[in-house]
Amino acid sequence: FPYTTLFRSEYLSLTPEQRHADYQARVEKAVHDHPDDPVAQVNYLKLMIADHKAEQEATAAKRIAALKPAAAVLADAGRALLAAKQYALAWDLLQQADAEGPRAADVDLDLAIATFHAAGAKAGLELLDRLPESERGGDYSLARAQMLDASGKLPEAALAIGQALQAAPGRPDLYRQAVALLVKQGNASEALRVIEQGARQLPEDREILLLKATTLEFANRPGDAGPLLSEVQNRWPEWPAAWLAHGIILATHRSYEEARQALETAVALGARSPETYYFLADCTLRSGRKDSAETLIKEALALSPEDPWIQALAGRIAIERGEYQLALERERAAIRQRPRLVEAHNSLARAYAALGRKQESDAELQQVRTLQKAPLNDEPPYLSRLFQGSLLEEKPL
Hints:
The chain has about 400 residues and is mainly α. The chain contains 23 helices and no strands.
């Protein structure tokens, strides 16, 4: 889209939202005027991915496939879907690109990764073996590590992680993904060794430094994690991820008032995830601010209504506010989504008791006792996601 000097000046004066709307209008016009142009359709697909519109993504992907464009166009669309973790859609397009010839669009690695997520590790590893030795770099080794991990071959996965970092020691994304895999395996010492290597290689990368701080916490070294979190906050005070991470960690150490302040700062700076509002609502409730906690948990519910831990906390907040019928509804919703969630059964018993429904309360307490005989991990998964780095990913508002 060529611009005159005057238009460029006008364009740069627009807000980010206005620029996005302008770009969307031009992409949609191109698709409308040239419905058989596969490049226009790929641009539209990428726009839908950026806007998190899953239904339109699927429609656009099918339209591109039906046009049967060149392998390079199919590969471009497939890679965009792969980056968005739309693995089944990516798989379809990358297979179509690959069908034009194994080297037609250099899609072997991308197709292997999509196949792994869509059809399993064994199928993915078989495709990885197609890559020639000259193309087995950091991305190849990391993909192999993930597939080996999924196959339960942990020593081989660890070896592949080392090969990935050796092949590309200056790439921050490899350190992040390696740490995520090691944390998932519960290998704190190796995760810490890897991220410390990353921090030496990339001392100015704020995401690497923040991941080092959370990995120190994962490795049960809060005395080292806290100062590093504060350092990251001081160096990048405008960055919501640093405040979010610090707030969550403070909450897990029961420093609820400090955690609340950090999480409020994260929200003020743009953090909008359901996990952010979950921890902020919990800390706010523990600080005695029941009405504010209700406002915050409604934000979390709006963002993730199917999350049983958010529903359970919402029920507990309703109990504290004396809204017992609402508590029943919320705790029942939590139990529908996770039937063995002890916290939800406990709160449901409290709500029934407050309403004078003793028999139902006793039944829920009996259910709690039964569940506690064969306990599952009832902790919400948010802390694990923090340690794996997924809560710290940059996302558009």
